[in-house]
Amino acid sequence: MRIDILSAVPVIIRDVFNHSIIGRAQKKSLVEIYVHDLHEFGLGKYKQIDDYQYGGGAGMVLRPEPVSQWIEKLKKERHYDEIIFLTPDAPVLNQKTVNELSLKKNLILIAGHYKGLDQRIRDLYVTREISIGDYVLSGGELPAAVLTDAIVRLLPGVLSDETSALTDSFQDGKLAPPVYTRPQVFKGLEVPDVLRSGDHQAIETWREKKSLEKTKQIRPDLLNE
User: 9 and 37: one domain?
Assistant: First the structure.
């Protein structure tokens, strides 16, 4: 898989992808991630990428030209399955969407910035819009990093135990059950007996029960979907 990210402030996230699971995935050539600076196609002497919005109002808007030129350049080199705009005014990301995107081959992510992105880019190029939650950040760089991380960890060979991702929260529509490790007793709290029993059927039954209880308590909305 290849992921290209268009950003007004690429320094925010370039180093994020050089470490941990994503860093190892790149070294193993399981994914290619490139962060591109919109200023490379900025206008004029100062490489301007934003301007005032028509109709007045506070906040600057990303101009369409730099974004369009980057997209056109990348599309000449390969086919992209999705061009995704990270923005608060979009459907909220969920595991189903992540699973779907992990099956794609090439993605372009546009990190929004300032007041937003000229609507014409959204109309002409964007195939999917994603929000990571009902709140506003200073830019789309962190949401782009979140989406990238969520996708890459699902790629074959990225996790040492590929079944781990299948037992994460949301994969089966519920939250993951509690997990424990050593020591057996910590500050008076003991690991449940069933997890030390060696009875795999009983353990799975316990986990399913705890998963359902946790979901009912914290995210009952998931059970109604």
Answer: yes
